[in-house]
Amino acid sequence: MSQIEPIELPQTITSLEDISAYKDSLHKQIEQEEERIANKWNDLFHKEETMPQGKAQKFAKMLSLGTTMFDGMMLGWKLYRKYQEGAFILGKTKKKRK
């Protein structure tokens, strides 16, 4: 990983042009760093998945996706059933029996 090279302050700032030049150099450095961060982010989180080659790989991928969807639906249903009494978003609350 490369280190950030700090931009050195001019020895003497005597005019607005010196400040403007320093500001421009900082702006260029910030743009370069933002581009590097964006590239690393894309490399980390947006990797392309290879398509399954054989029938067995396709079936395994479909089975895995189906199992994940079913698991998510079951989790949602369990959470809904557990917190249904306090669900003010839905508007209805269960009344307790005496």
Task: Give an account of the 3D structure.
This protein has 98 residues and is mostly helical. It has 2 domains: 14-48; 50-86. It has helices at residues 16-45, 55-82. The model has no long low-confidence stretch (mean pLDDT 83).
Topology at a glance:
Blueprint: H1 16-45, H2 55-82
Compose a concise summary of this entry:
With 98 residues, this protein is mainly alpha-helical. It has helices at residues 16-45, 55-82.
Q: What gap, in angstroms, lies between the N and C termini?
A: 67 Å
Task: Categorize the overall geometry.
Answer: elongated
Number of helices: 2
Order of helices and strands: HH
- What is the number of E strands? 0
The helix fraction, in percent, is 55-70%
Compute the number of structural domains. 2
Please give the radius of gyration in angstroms. Answer: 28 Å
Mean pLDDT: 83
**Estimated structural class:** mainly alpha
Largest sheet: number of strands, sense, barrel closure? none
Strand content: under 5%
Q: Which consecutive residue ranges, at least 5 long each, have pLDDT under 50?
A: none
